[in-house]
Recover the amino acids of this structure.
C-alpha cells in the first residue's frame, strides 16, 4: 500500500493516500459515499478540501479539516487538485476483465 502514496508539499512534505478511514471521514464531512457517488470533477471547494483531508489523515491522526483548509490557497490549488487526482487514480480498485468495477467513475462535465 505504501507504494500508492503521492507526495505533495503543503505546510511540509505530506503524502496522500485514500484509505478506508479517509473514505469514512470524507463521508462524515460531506455525506458523499465515494463508493457510490464518485465524480471529483463536480466536487465543491469544501468537498475538495475534505478529500485532501481524507487523503492525509493516514499519516497524521491529529490533523483536522481546518488545518487542511489553512494549507490550501489559490496559489497551490491546481497542484493540490492534480495530486489528489493522481492519488485517486492510483488507489481506486480496477475491475478485472469482464467484471463491473467496484467504483464507477462518472463522466466529466
Amino acid at each position: 500500500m505504501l507504494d500508492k502514496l503521492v507526495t505533495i508539499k503543503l505546510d511540509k512534505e505530506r503524502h496522500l493516500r485514500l484509505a478506508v478511514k479517509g473514505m469514512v471521514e470524507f463521508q462524515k464531512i460531506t455525506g458523499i459515499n465515494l463508493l457510490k457517488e464518485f465524480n471529483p470533477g463536480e466536487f465543491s471547494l469544501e468537498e475538495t478540501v475534505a478529500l485532501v483531508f481524507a487523503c492525509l489523515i493516514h499519516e497524521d491522526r491529529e490533523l483536522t479539516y481546518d488545518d487542511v483548509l489553512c494549507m490550501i490557497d489559490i496559489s497551490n490549488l491546481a497542484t493540490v487538485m492534480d495530486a489528489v487526482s493522481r492519488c485517486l487514480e492510483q488507489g481506486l480498485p480496477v475491475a478485472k476483465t469482464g467484471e463491473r468495477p467496484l467504483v464507477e467513475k462518472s463522466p466529466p462535465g
